[in-house]
Amino acid sequence: MAIKSRFLISTALILLLTGLFSWLSMRVLAEGIIVNWVERYAEKQIQYDKVRTLLPLIQEVNRSKEFAELESLKAWAKQPFNEALKQQALEETEAFRHRFADKSYFIALKGNEHYYYSEGKEAPPPNLYRYTLHHTNPDDAWFYQIMAKKLNLHLNVNPDVELGVIKLWSDVLIRDGDDVLGVVGTGLDLSGFLQQMVAKQDIYSAIVFTNNEGSIQLYQREELIDYSSLTKLSQDKSRVFQLLDDEVSRTQLTQALALAKETPNHVKTSFVYKDDVRQLASIVYIPEIDWFQINFIDIKGFLPLTEFSSLLVVFFISLVCALIVFYLLLTLIVTKPLAELDLSIGSLDKKQYRAPKLTRFAGLEIKKLVSHYQKMSTSLLEHQQELEEKVAERTKELNRIARLDPLTELYNRRGFEAHMTEYMQRWQQSRHSFGLINVDVNHFKSVNDLYGHAAGDLVLQKIATYLKNTVGDKGEVARWGGDEFLILVKQDLAAISEQLQDDHESLVININEQDITIQFSVGSALVEDSDTLESLLHRADGVMYAAKFSHR
């Protein structure tokens, strides 16, 4: 794979990974912003709810607490069978009744176990007694459990079937120091409260009000409200934890409830799974009513993935555009200059130099590389040419040496054969007559024996000079081997042959102050139509040996 393709693929992968990481980071950041916003929103919402809707409920609870502190009521509760104290207490409680929103209240005394109820009529009956409580009656269990647990405040949600409304009863203990004398309270119609706080809540959120143990007191789904929570068995209670999908979410919500109770009116958040959706639970503990307000928010509703699809499209288009621009820049800055450099390098194989053509877009590093290459290639070509010239000269010299006899610098056997072969090929065309003389030095061995091989080499050199001078430009002289020479004669074959045969005094060599006269045995042959090099050599050699043996 080409470097450009690999580079583009690597760049695309890096950009994709970077984009994915950025997108995920944006999601996490946006989710963090949503969580922070939900916390702030929940804190503001609880303050708003207190003023708008919870305030009447809190005021009703506070009035119930004030009601329980009436001195006449405490005095009667201490002596429940004292009629005078009873009348005095009822007069004061009836005066207090108009402060309750429902214009009603109840009194349940521990001493006589009587239950009194004023239902808000303008002219209440003189005796408010309704019935006598009994600990064996399941319907009266609330009374005994509140006193047993010494609950200073207990809110109890119950539906009124006859009236078709949902009532919230605020139960407050009548205390005299540590002694519990009874329970008083009032009822509040929560139908309007549910309509405002729950039924019309945002489609992406769900508000739940629970008590300390998580029992649902208010919820948009009325069938899940845990009515009469105090008197129910644990397994029969409808708790907020049942709305969650898994045990991990239930554990996290339990911990968040504990943290929220430690810091009342401050929001605590925890991620849970509800209705197969990851949701953010914001929890606020409201100490005035001893309840928790839990708001389940579907984060996807506030932060839908579709909102990010446009970002993905923009990122994809940006990625394609970036790759196109990157491709063009890579081509102009890197790959095109490299292609020019490759063409220039290829031209070196042909012993030519092609200068790379660089544009102004070529990268600085590429330009430096090309500059170094130009210097190197120019030097390389010059060195190559110089080397080739030297090799040619050396080859020529070697060829010359290979064809010449090193002692006499005449053609050696190999060189003379090559020369004769070329000459005979030309003769085949020109048919210009020529001949061959075979010259053998007489008694040369005695020179080596008497004077040594150095003297013999000197004699051979003198003979070579003599033969070249004798032949001149009429032929070529070669040392065939030892003391035997061959002469290619182009003209005057007979004259040269006779001169070499008859000239006994022209070649006298002084060795160790002694003159030695050199004589030759000569055989010659004139080329014929059917001759080859071998046949011509054979005939000249035969004539020479005949002459040599005749001298003996």
Automatic annotation (TrEMBL):
One of the entry's Gene Ontology molecular-function terms is:
diguanylate cyclase activity
Organism domain of life: Bacteria
Q: Please give the InterPro entries that the UniProt record associates with this protein.
A: Diguanylate_Cyclase, GGDEF_dom, Nucleotide_cyclase, Rev_trsase/Diguanyl_cyclase
Q: Where are the transmembrane segments?
A: 311-334
Instruction: Identify the keywords attached in UniProt to this record, alphabetized.
Output: Membrane, Transmembrane, Transmembrane helix
Q: Which residues form the GGDEF domain?
A: 432-552
Q: What does the record give as the reaction this protein catalyses?
A: 2 GTP = 3',3'-c-di-GMP + 2 diphosphate
Its recorded name reads: diguanylate cyclase
**What is the organism field in this record?**
Marinomonas rhizomae
Source organism lineage? Bacteria, Pseudomonadati, Pseudomonadota, Gammaproteobacteria, Oceanospirillales
- UniProt cross-references to PROSITE patterns, sorted A to Z: GGDEF
- Entry EC number(s): 2.7.7.65
The UniProt entry, under SMART domains, shows: GGDEF
